[in-house]
Amino acid sequence: MPGQRVSGEPAPRAAMGALGVLMGYWGYVDALNGAVAPFLAREFDLDDSGIAWAFGWMSFAAIGTFFLSRRADRLGRRRTLLLCLAALPPAALASAAAPTLLVFVLVQLLAQGFKGALYTVAPVMVAEALPTERRAWGQSVVGFAGALGGGTALILVAVCADLPGSWRWGWAAAALPLAALPFVRNRLPESARFERAVAAGETRRARAHELLDSRYRRRTCGILIATLLFTLAIVATQTWLIYHPVRDLGMQPLLATSAIIAGGAVGMLGFPLGGRLAESWGRRATFTVATILYAPAAAGFYAVPADSSIPPAVGLAIGFAAMSTLTNIAAVALRASQTELFPTRLRGTLLGWLAMAMAAATIGAQFAAGGLSLWLGGLAPAVSVLGVLMLPAALAFMALVPETAGLGLEAAALEDDPDEISDPER
Questions:
Q1: What is the torsion angle, in degrees rounded to the nearest 10, for the CA atoms of residue 67, residue 407, residue 389 and residue 26?
Q2: What pTM was computed for the model?
């Protein structure tokens, strides 16, 4: 029955605890390069354009994420997540010890590939482990865990800023979650939906081109376009949250980090709010409203002057609180749709394609920020312009992505008899 946990599914509480650990680790690693950017640029003598280009090259790690996500549809969600948790810490240690920028970028291609797979596969497990009325809530919970991990990265890097090696301590600490491997392994069973798909032979028959068959083409294009543009705007505007105050406004790293932490703490309210709105308003309306409001909020953050009557740290905290709240609301709705729109045999594959789209967006954002910063006179005006890409993301989502709120996972993904589903692309 809709809303009832399927027999044999992972116990939600146990599975969600393990998935929360994995997403917290993802959030830490995801925020780390943004946090260390000013110190990385200083050590390797990079200007605004140079650091943006370095981050752009790292984004090619999504090729690895794509293959790992495909693996999750063939060999299992659990085994893929455990592989990432085991392999990412050694790559983090190698990053901390990198003697040159080239070595750092090369090692990051491995680290970011495993990190990306955590982000793509863990939400799939959430969707497959929870009943209909709890799926958006589950995505908000793991999103909250990711935000906690990101805040931890910001705090640690700020504390270590004046130590010898500065940014390297943040990457060294990213090796510590290897100790959580036994906990995750014991509490994270394989998805029962995936096991049933394997038993029925669906995973052997699954082909990536199915995503462009007539049943799924429209939603595939919509979710890819919306994800690409959303990611491009987020990467462009949120990679430089510490770099901008430190390099452009002359703030001390600890003060800049405190402002971002304060704003991010308020923004955490976006996760439960996003879960509630995604269930009451629907995924489409929630994502659309949040993304439309995001562009002016990001522009306001980067417009905070260094010499206003209000201390810059206060203005930055308020600006980032708005950015973070809207990002988290939109991300809950987007992640819910991404994991609900496609059948079990294609869910990981779709997330792999989304990883490629997100990588293309990240590369485009970093390279565009580097180029526009030369033309517009700095990163702040460049990324403010790129933040406007949230508007076409909202249009694509509203026009092409069907609503899944209130539908059972099989119905939302068109796994039921198509004759029994009325207007599936509504």
A1: -40
A2: 0.73
